[in-house]
Amino acid sequence: MDIFLRPATSADVPEIVAMLADDALGAGREDPSELGPYHAAFARFAEDPNQRLLVAEENGEVVGSLQLAILFGLSRQGASRALIEAVRVRSDRRGAGVGSWLVREAVELARREGCALVQLTSDASRADAHRFYERLGFRATHVGFKLAL
Questions:
Q1: Model confidence, pTM
Q2: Burial class of 22 by CB neighbour count within 10 A (0 to 12, 13 to 18, 19+)
Q3: What local confidence, expressed as pLDDT, does residue 147 receive?
Q4: Which positions carry the signal peptide feature in this UniProt record (predicted)?
Q5: Which end of the chain is more exposed for a tag (fewer CB within 10 A), N or C?
Q6: Which CATH code, of 2.60.200.30, 3.40.630.30, 3.40.1130.10, 3.60.70.12, is assigned to 3-135?
């Protein structure tokens, strides 16, 4: 694969949003026709050095994306951890190894940042994604809860 990881730019927002909306769950919660809220969220990324919106680029095209957040805490003797969110691969590139490559790159970036662990959440209905993360070495060691506000 001729692919590399880079920070997203505001010009990437439409492509990232299209990937977020391109599945059963995303179709019900994303609105690619109204990009204003997404650009506002992107601007917040630029202000926080511990938040990264990253894209996988292949042959000049965005083929994947994820968010990597560095979290600081007191537990684990003050260890930092990385949180991976919103992993997406363009539908025509799924199954080609892009997702595995993207997550492995994010894990290495977290390691270079001194994180003691990497965590992520995945919607309970995404059985295929769960198998994908397990193949990459992640383990379902905790139960997660969310509260919509």
A1: 0.91
A2: middle
A3: 86
A4: none
A5: C
A6: 3.40.630.30
